[in-house]
Amino acid sequence: MSKFDQLAERVIFGNRALVLAVFVLVTAAMAFFASQLKVDAGFNKQVPLQHEYMRTFTDYQADFGGANRVLIAVMAKDGNMFSKEYMATLENVTNDVINLDATDDAKARSLFTPNVRFIEVVEDGLSGGNVIPQDFTPNLEGFEATPEQFAKIKGNIVKAGITGRLVAKDYSGAMVWADLIPESDVNKLDYQKVAKQLEAIRKKYENDNTSVHIIGFAKMVGDISDGAMSVIKFFLITIAFTWILLFLYSSSAKLASLTVLSALVSVVWMLGALKLMGFGIDPMNMLTPFLIFAIAVSHGEQMINRFRGEIFFGGLEDGTVEQLRLKARHAVDPKTAAIRSFHALLIPGTVALLAGCIGFGAIMVIPIQMIRELAITATVGVALTIVTDLVLLPILLSYTKLRNLDKKREFRLRQLTQFDKIWAALSKLSRPKAAATVLAIGAVVWAAAWWQGNKVMIGDAQQGVAELRPEARYNQDARLISSRFALGVDTMNIIVEAGPSACTTSYKAMETIDRFAWHMANVEGVEQVITLPMAAKQVNAGWNDGSPRWKVLPRDPDTLRQSTQSFETDSGLLNADCSAIPVTVFTKDHKSTTIDRVVAETKKFRTENQAYEEGFAKKRDAAVAKAQENGEEYTTDQVNFRLATGPLGVQAATNDTVREKEHLILWLLYGAVFAMCWISFKSWRAALCVALPLMMVTELGHSLMVYLDIGMKVNTLTVVALGVGIGVDYGIYIFARMREAMSHRIEFVAADKDRDRTVTPEELHALKHGHLEDGGAHPDAHMATAAHFDGLDRDTDGRLTHKEFNEGQEHLRTLSESYFIALKTTGIAIFYTALTLAVGVAMWIFSDLKFQADMGIMLTFMFVVNMLAAIVFLPALCRWLLRPKEQDNWVAHL
Q: What is the arithmetic mean of pLDDT over 495-507?
């Protein structure tokens, strides 16, 4: 026993009541802080703000709005929007949306807003006005609309070119666009509040004649938040199922209750720590308490498994039924059993949990605030589990006296022996030929999984919002808007930086932008492209009797100015000095393949046209300032295409981040697991035995994602990482028990009766009979026989030195026997651990949120398959990495 172990024992078990009182006080304080937690969602939290595209987004958010837009479609159920009742409803919805505190009034667009105008060719040139005439007032008492007014409105809609954008293609409804005020340190949006306000507008105006459909980030967050709250009931069901499983495993209500209690303390501490760190609960991270509870229960299960071994048999639960009954004489009291369990699991338990901490910490390499909050939350939660499972639970167990101890011991004996045939069959996998076959099969499976897993799509693999189920109201609204309108929220803005007043002075710059718009309009998946040069061509034709021959960009600066000067900044086509012109690309969906295609074509165009230079705007502004100092005017025809703003620009940046960090995170996880196991087991070969099955299962998880059509997004990447961090536990516990079985665990000083610093065959054998005060056999004495002496006596001088004793004790048992003992003593616990973890996350399958259901399937798969991989592949790897030359003919005697 190390000095640290001795010190920890004195501090913890020497002051049990005091330590327990501290736990009670801290838990009460953490529960208070946890009760103050609030749901905290934010747009900026979910995007990689340092990405190239997001820098563009940030630079031009004030000019062209962000990606945080809400679309409200007001639809006439009879298919005809040209009625007084419908128009009154549309006007009221527009006003209610504009009056929301969170919306940017200047950027709101509707048939009833003054920034939606039409331009037409008249005898004197061009004329224009609001789409809705000033005298059309459907909400004014006594107003009666005429067919002529509706005909005029329809004509204005056509002239404004907003059919398919603000107005449905079949004139069955119209939309209200609203940009939310950009978030800042001063202005923090409450997305749940905004979503509720939008839902209130829906309920207010939806009736037998009119339906209201709402999409956008704020509404999506609100729906996800509402769905995420359903996890509370699943959490309660999970606790109940977990308790039942623990009771079935331990046959003790006390042990089951104490394990669940310790796990709940972990969760309470984690939630309290969140509040103390200034975080809230993000709807996307609502599953973290589930994971912490499941992890705490799984490690607590190992603790009560060890505790039962000590309290029933006084040590390792190996041997036949007769041998175990003999060992029962050396059963210890609860306090001693708790102390021994504490020492036995302190190292493997801490290593497994620290590996999880490092694994979760690795997720922090993703530069997205929401993910970093999740990583911190999970890391803190697992770190606190070390304290609750390895300190609190042993203390509670030390006070626990089980009733009907003999009856429970007999139940444990049956539990230990009823699977002996299965364990014996599995132990044969550690023999050389069988191990080679298993590894060959594993290599084939791994290669197939890697080949299939490489097909996993980065980003969304499905239409609609992947986080919600297809039948969710949000996805139904998205499908309706997509079918009735040519455009939706799936837009990407490529910001074209140019010289000052480029739209009125530089034909070459405008012509390059126009060619780019034409190029993008012909890209697969693009529905429509809108940009200033396209609108300018329309105006130029208007100045020339509407002739299609004049639908071109004027080369003359004065004529070009005439064609563009009527466009205001609120049109979204240009900024104040026309030095930035967005090209808005509308796509049919937001699948990763569509986004990647648009990005690739943009990069191709700007490369072929030498139209991208990092830092262009700064150099231009410096040149403008220098020219002004010299009393000159700066002009340039150069343009700079910057990706990208809009919802798809944000998603493209996120997909790039996932693509860039995916493999880094996994290798950091694997490296952390390998390093922790190497430090713990003092063998790089042993570390490989634990890590390799884990890596194979991760590839199998990727294959499952392809099969289920789940894209690799920020959320799914973190779940895969969580699965790796938790899945390693099985291998660590199995190998730790194998190593313990391979070592006889009898101290040299105990065998050295005459204290001459050597051990003779007689002394080793005497340990079997005289070491214990009651004259009985040592619990592990059947290993300490003279028959093993030759295996320890390396120099064959008839006695053992301290060095020989320590070196030889690792080889007293064959690998097959040690693996059989490991499975016999911890196999059932490993199985129940996997079952407990799987049940905990399988409840998510019934969640209202699709991404929670998908992640439930993913984690259930990874937890179960990691357990199977550890049981099957670990012994085969141990054979060829640790003991390739060992003569192993051991056969289980059942």
A: 88
